[in-house]
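2024-03-11 09:14:02 DEBUG pipeline.ingest accepted 1 chain
2024-03-11 09:14:02 DEBUG pipeline.ingest length=356
2024-03-11 09:14:03 DEBUG pipeline.predict start
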Amino acid sequence: MKGFVFHGPGEASWQDVPDPAVKAPTDAIVRVGAVTVCGTDLHILKGDVPEVRPGTVLGHEAVGEIVEIGGDVRTVRPGDRVLLSCISSCGRCRFCRERAYGQCRGGGGWILGHLIDGTQAEYVRVPHADLSVHPLPATLRDEDAVLLADIFPTAYEVGVLNGRVSPGDTVAVVGAGPVGLAAVATARLFSPERIIAVDLVPARLEAARRLGADAVADGREAPDQLVADLTGGLGADVVIEAVGVPESFGLCTRVVRPGGHVANIGVHGKPALLHLEDLWNRNVTITTGLVDTYSTPTLLRMAAAGRLPTGQLVTHTFPLGQMEEAYEVFAKAAETGALKVVLGGQQHAEVAVPAS
């Protein structure tokens, strides 16, 4: 089969790789139907995630069909169409029992495309399949469902829920990339008074408006002042950091009100300065987090009922074999207008089943 292989910072290619095989009785082999590229994949290519070793197939988001299962798998069977979660769960360790699946100590957590081969391939091995894949309703297209593998649970759990968005709040989302836009969409579920989106790319700010932002600001044009003007000088109740650079984190800590929440989602590859000399007496809560995906079943039901605008985030589609082109389009989002790129999907041809 073929997969998209990381060779080191700045180097990756779509190439022949060995077919995956069941290694443990809890494994499943999934034929990939649709896959997408994440901002975290770009961080890996930049060298920001040193745990990813050269030779690893990238990717942690996919929809596909079960083709083989280990002897202990009980909840899915060959032929089932499933969503692959970006987080794997052993279901037995302390953290999994607390629904903190991202911190799994039983061989789960964020492993796909990180510590083991991932989803940007024709086939993928999924450990702990019973708790790491979700059967899909027939009403959800692959292209829509794949966005529930990572960006919507991440935005909802690490941004909206950790930030404790409440009715009547002012919510500022710094970064209107895919996760930031998903945060705009899911923050609306809690009836905030207003949502303010900040970004550097006009097309992303326009997308934020379409998804429910009440005001937008160019990050180069005094977003601090806009937030102050809209809140009577108090600042935002909740500020969601969805970029992962020191400048955006600093902006978040400046525009949050006393007693407010800063919810960091962004993947940071460099240290960010924390001005405790300004924050120590303002009762500000700062949260960080890797998504746990405990909300995925709820989000799947909402998407199937048409309550989540997943399809609005997909701007480009490609056949599975055009992985390198998809990465280029996604990496140059300011030029291409890309939000989410999806490869494969129900409109593209199927790949052959590997020999057993």
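2024-03-11 09:14:41 DEBUG pipeline.report Residues 347-356 have pLDDT under 50 and may be disordered.
2024-03-11 09:14:41 DEBUG pipeline.predict end
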